[in-house]
Amino acid sequence: MQGKIRTRFAPSPTGYLHIGGLRTALYGFLFAKKGGGDFVLRIEDTDTARYVDGSVQIIYDTMRDSGIMYDEGPDVGGDYGPYVQSERKSLYLEYAKKLVELGGAYYCFCDQERIESLKDETGNIRYDKHCLKLSKEEIARRIASGEKYVIRQNVPTEGTGSYHDLVYGDISVDYKDIEDGILLKSDGMPTYNFANVIDDHLMGITHVIRGTEYLSSTPKYNLMYDAFGWERPTYIHLPPIMKDAQHKLSKRNGDASYEDFVNKGYVKEAIVNYIALLGWSPKGNQEKMSLNELIENFSLEGIGKSSAIFDEAKMKWLSGEYIKAMTDEELVEKADKFFKESKVYGKYDLKKIAALLKTRIEIYSEIPEKINFLEEFGEYDIALYTHKKMKTDAEIAKVVLPKAREVIANLKEFNYDSIHDALMALVAEMGVKNGQVFWCVRVAISGKESTAGGVMEIAELLGKEETLKRLDYSIQLLNK
Ligand code: GLU
């Protein structure tokens, strides 16, 4: 019986946190939280060639911002630190030496030239266990003389490594297909293949959740757990996320990161919610779920084996659902940056505008374009009056608008109801269709085909004076 559940997210700091990485983090977080366990962040920075400055900070920021918060990690501490692999260097040497003593690894002094000479016709290199035969004395002498070495895993030449993955089931790999890979490099840094085992064990990780690319290398990690006499963790490998049927979504292809989507104006909760659905299906039909609801509903049984396709349109729809559910105040607050980019900022009551926008946008970045007309009005194409369904066009507008101007000018109170009633009375008086009046007036006071809000809402925001000014302008424009 395992004790407290402990999962980890172990990103390499190689740039932005992409969607696949964040999904791995999210599942580790959801699984731990659902089981009352701990979620750990570990920075895997041993591949110095791929290190990108600033990316550790991006990882911290993204996780905080998205709410996928860890209980232990480099910047929050914990009992199992350090949580950055480069700060654990001495540990790896110690355990690599131990593994050598246990027969699970060996020193290798082969230089690049010899390694190159092992290339086969297809250009593949497979190490031939040459240094496994060296005597203890020779090894000690060569190390003492300062010769460079690596430590390699000693993989059996026959037999099969098997384990049970909670998503993919029973996995078996023949040892003859596994190379004696490098565990400790000549600069003393571990490779991923070694560090993940040492750290997952020392950090008490009970469930290893990561991408399928590690499915077939896991038997070699198990060899090390077994050699050390450590309990193997439970494995949960996650299906890949695809851009389309052929291409994986990946940051190497420049595919969008969490941050990119936030900058594009997606609701953050919707991004996290959508990512949760990439490879996991909830039991019920409910797709819109807060982080707490995700924790409540998450289960490993819902994780599928087949790859998930990243559908930005669906994420957009979900973002729209979140916006609809916001209060006006919330929308004003959360979309602040986008309101600031619009021309109306500081000039209108944003809460009133938010009320109109709420059902009409899916992402915040649509805001400026939807409301700029309030501050920006001038020549427009009179073809906008043509609307088949509304049975209207510029000729009808020419007749309707002067009358509409008159009834609006006569209003003592200028609000939604009074404008509505006046225009309805005009519809009755003229014997025309509602749309013929409402469509024409809306175009006349906005100069736009689509606006946040209908006639009454827009007119109310503009005020009586501006509404009449715009009607006058449009009447002139139509009679040019
Ligand atoms: N650093 C590895 C990666 O970014 C972590 C894999 C794992 O979770 O074990 O792919």
How would you explain this protein's 3D organization?
There is one protein chain. The protein contains 20 helices and 11 strands. With 480 residues, the chain is mainly alpha-helical. The chain has a 3-stranded antiparallel sheet with strand order 3-4-7. It has a two-stranded parallel ribbon with strand order 1-2. Strand 5 and strand 6 (169-174) form a beta hairpin. The model has no long low-confidence stretch (mean pLDDT 95). Glutamic acid is lined by residues 10-12, 44, 192, 196, 210, 214. Residues 10-12, 44, 192, 196, 210, 214 line the site of glutamic acid (GLU).
- Major beta sheet summary: 3 strands, antiparallel
Mean pLDDT: 95
Low-pLDDT ranges:
none
By secondary-structure content and strand pairing, the structural class works out as: mainly alpha
Query: Quick one: how many beta strands?
Result: 11
In short:
The protein has 480 residues and is mainly alpha-helical.
Describe this protein with a few key phrases.
480 residues; mainly alpha; three-stranded antiparallel beta sheet; two-stranded parallel ribbon; 42% helix; binds glutamic acid
SSE topology:
Blueprint lengths: L5 E4 L9 H16 L3 E4 L13 H12 L22 H13 L3 E4 L3 H5 L19 H9 L5 E4 L6 E6 L3 E6 L7 E3 L7 H11 L4 E5 L6 H11 L5 E5 L2 E2 L15 H6 L4 H9 L14 H7 L10 E2 L2 H13 L3 H7 L1 H5 L9 H8 L9 H5 L22 H16 L6 H15 L3 H13 L8 H8 L1 H15 L2
Parallel strand pairs: 1-2, 8-9, 10-11
Antiparallel strand pairs: 3-4, 4-7, 5-6
Bound molecules: glutamic acid (GLU).
Glutamic acid binds next to α6.
